[in-house]
Amino acid sequence: MAQPTQPPPPAAGAKDYRIRPLKRGDRDAAFKLLAADGWVVASGDQELAISWVVQHPEIECFVAHDVAAYGRLYGMITMSHRPQLRLGGRVASIDLFLVVPEQRHKGIGHDLLSQALARAQALGCKRVEILLPEPRDDRHAFFESYGGKAIVLGRFVPIVRTFVPFVAGAAQMTTAAFVSYNAVGAVAWVALCLFTGWFFGNIPIVKNNFSLVTIAIVLVSLLPMAFEIWSHRQKRGSANG
After folding, report:
1. pLDDT: is 179 or 109 the higher one?
2. Which domain holds residue 151?
3. What residues are paired with 73 via a beta bridge?
4. Do the domain assignments include residue 6?
């Protein structure tokens, strides 16, 4: 039986990659490429997502692949296009553009962008926009891992509870996770206040000095934050020393 032959190596000075449209068979390689850039798509959603991109008449996607391995992807660019009345034609938007770090500075990004712009010109697009979100970095991973505790405990700390939603948003915590932990924190806070008042509200020393008790509650609730600040300074001092 004849053995399968390997593709010949590129000639000296030739590019070791090719540009082509995305195929459905690229699913695993494409989502692996996205995951390496910080965008993890659930495996159950991948088939439907790549089908939309490949089949949608107003989405173009091009990939750069190893000339010796059709399924080994080095980079990817996606562009959507739509008609716009005020321009009297179509407008294109590039919303995904990435190249694996070890293959950068080889012209792959330039060729991917050139391919997308050529396609936009062929479609009669009057304008091309680049709308690239920032990759999900360590802030997102940290908040997905530990943000639930921060949101729940933040309900018990004055001032902090005001800023936790903004931090969660900046860290790109998913909406479902934020809503779930926020609800747990709200229920826990209300339950604590309700049962504390039920058990201690009629004690004379508490009833007669309620303003002082309120101040004490605020001070106690600030202790975790003060401890974290002190601990952080201690670690930083140790690192510098």
Report:
1. 109
2. 138-240
3. 65
4. no
